[in-house]
Amino acid sequence: MEKVAFILKTTAHPTRIAIVQLLAATDSLSVSDISEKLNVEQSLLSHHLTGMKLKGILSSSREGKNIYYALKMREVIDVIQCLAACTFL
């Protein structure tokens, strides 16, 4: 239950959930790609990405000037899907 609580606390924002769902569907995306797909300003997006990376939810790699993010903790997908399936939401 501690891991579930950690995941819920770390992803408890609509933008963060959208980031996880987007990255669950692909290997990795650049910050600019995520920003474009979610229609979120890069500065705000970078704040969310950095926080989730520091907590171990995401990983990142640099290629030239671009930083690419990927989902590191795959269990996050299961928790989000489980919540989305709840009938009371």
UniProtKB/TrEMBL annotation:
Keywords: DNA-binding, Transcription, Transcription regulation. SMART domains: HTH_ARSR. Pfam families: HTH_5 (PF01022). It comes from the Bacteria. Residues 1-89 form the HTH arsR-type domain. This is Transcriptional regulator. It comes from Hymenobacter metallilatus. The keyword Transcription applies. PANTHER family: ARSENICAL RESISTANCE OPERON REPRESSOR ARSR-RELATED. The keyword Transferase does not apply. One of its GO terms (molecular function) is DNA binding.
